[in-house]
Amino acid sequence: MFSGCGKPSTNFSVAHRLCQSTQRKIREHTMNHTAENRLKLPTAVAACLMVGLLAGCTAPPAQPEPPAVDRSAQPVSLAWSSKENVVSEIQVEEQLGLAIAYVERQRKLTLVARELADGSLRWKREASVGHNPGGMRMRLPVFEHNGSRMAAFVESVKGKSERLVVIDLATGKNTSASIEVDFMTNRPVECEETWCVEGDRKSGEPVNMRYDMEKGRWKQLAGEDLPTPKKNPDDRFVGEGLSSSSQRGPGEELLSYARDGKILWSVPYEQVFDSYYSTDNGWEWTTFEEPQQIFVGHGSRIDYQYHPEGDAYVQDWNKDAMMVGIDPDTGKRRWAVPGADQDCSGIVETRQAQTRSTFVTCRFHQALATVQPSTGKRGALTGLEWDVAGIDAATGKERWAYDMPGYEKAVELAKANNRILGDQKYVIVPMASGFAAVDSSTGEKLELSHVLGDTVLCTSDRDSVEVRHIDGYEQTAYLRVPQTVQPCTRDTQKATKDLPLYAEFQRTGKDQQRIAVLPDRAGMVAYRMPDE
Fold it and tell me: Long-range pairs for 49-56 at CB < 8 Å and ≥24 separation?
């Protein structure tokens, strides 16, 4: 009948016709067909089976899937741009087709949503800066509930009062009744699949509230009902489960940690860092998971605490900033890196290279400067000795290190304020021979051309933005705003109108949406990724 499992024999057409005839007969028979019919069916069915075998043997082998098109060498294209002062991270909601961000105009804030496709405005809402410490960046915490993407923020009512609002991101409209705020509220943050806010009444009484997703309303919480408890009602959160107390003075400020609804420990902040360190001069905490969990924090001294007379003083960058690793179970310090500065004075991008077990930072081994308290001006650094290093988060030990340039070159680079955006594998480091790409895990040094294309993404720092509070609060808020991201040339790090290849967006993790929207000095800029 067939040769191996090769081409069909000439009996195929006969069998095929027999099969078709049999199928018609089967449809014509009723459930009470006779024994004769039942005896005839097996022969006919065999013919059908034979056709199936023949068809199975003669079908061509399954063709492999065509290889995916390598888009890395294709350029991105410019989709659209806007003209506005973006003061927050840009929230891209691809399913809703939106790019959402806070923007500032005439010292007022607006939450705007732009169409991903063309940048046109879909909706906008007046917003308030709230009463967060100035170093905390604006962000928009988002949750999905009953199929809707929702966000919470503090709304400004004609600059005279504030309301806590929850909106549907698709329309910008309220999903529930907003509530008037009669206390100095911070901006909403995530807490156990919903939002929480904290603040103080003018009398100093602390207020804590939580949004009930099911009932669609804000509920005031007593101290014992807080999802993450605090040692004192007026303490402020500085990290996940971490809070600092409001007491000030030698040894008075406490760092506390709460987990599973209870406070595990409280230790003096100066014991974690050093004398005169305080959260008043900023904070940053990160949790590392491997090989064991550890909290890594950055802190710095507050000048007015140890120079109260207002006289000129010498600032020591090796002693006035520090990174520490503390045990989550006890609060005891495991290690310290004096002079650590992950901002690297605006010369090197380090945070993108962080892994589950390592981080990269600059270290000032020596750097002295005279500061005039009356003006805040700092004189030139003297005796500058610093490097950039990969640090093991569990032990604080150095994995690799390279010297950073001397003072004059460092000032030149800092003034340029345009540095190549790092990625999860490489840190772009200035060396005596020029810039090099350093593997953040191993310290291996490579030429930039081996890692980067001709056009890359660079970042630039921006000055803080001044925003006014609502009526009744004289204090002006100074917002720490996100860095701008723009194309620049690899070898000169100067701005260019050339667009990077798709590979550059893959390298920097900016390829997660079909359209990437990045902050620029002039507004939002949207880049369209090449077609698949």
Answer: 50/1, 50/15, 51/12, 51/15, 51/16, 51/19, 54/1, 54/2, 54/8, 54/12, 54/15
